[in-house]
Amino acid sequence: QLVESGGGLVQAGGFLRLSCAASGRSLSSYTMSWFRQAPGKGPEWVSSSNAGGGSTIYTDPVKGRFTISRDNAKNTLYLQMNSLKSEDTAVYYCTRQSNWGSRGQGTLVTVSS
Predict the structure, then answer these.
(1) CA dist 83 to 16, 73, 92, 102, Å?
(2) Residue 99 CB: number of other CB atoms within 10 A?
(3) Burial, 44: exposed, middle or buried (Cβ in 10 Å; 0-12, 13-18, 19+)?
(4) Which DSSP letter does residue 73 get?
(5) What string of pLDDT tens digits covers the 113 residues of the chain?
(6) Distance CA 72, CA 81 (A)
(7) Which residue from 38, 69, 91, 113 puts its CA 20 to 30 A from 4's CA?
């Protein structure tokens, strides 16, 4: 089970740190990903971290602003989001690998301009 948290309302230019706590299965064996879904749109992949955390990739719109990280000892995945823009407004989900079906309930990020 994955549980996302840390979302909220923030002004453009602000920052948030999302967390994804895993239970049942260790994160350490999996590539983990963040997706987001804006109102009225389909899911969009945001970022992934390999099992060891040494390799990370990002979608172009968030490069240089978002940082994915993980603490395998705490079984938690993070997404540090800086310089937020209104277009970052979405529900954010974490997944095991890129399995959309593994996502939790999501956490809402609203960026006001």
Answers:
(1) 9, 29, 16, 28
(2) 11
(3) middle
(4) T
(5) 999 999 999 999 999 999 999 988 888 889 999 999 999 999 999 999 998 888 999 999 999 999 999 998 999 999 999 999 999 999 999 999 889 999 999 999 999 98
(6) 20
(7) 113
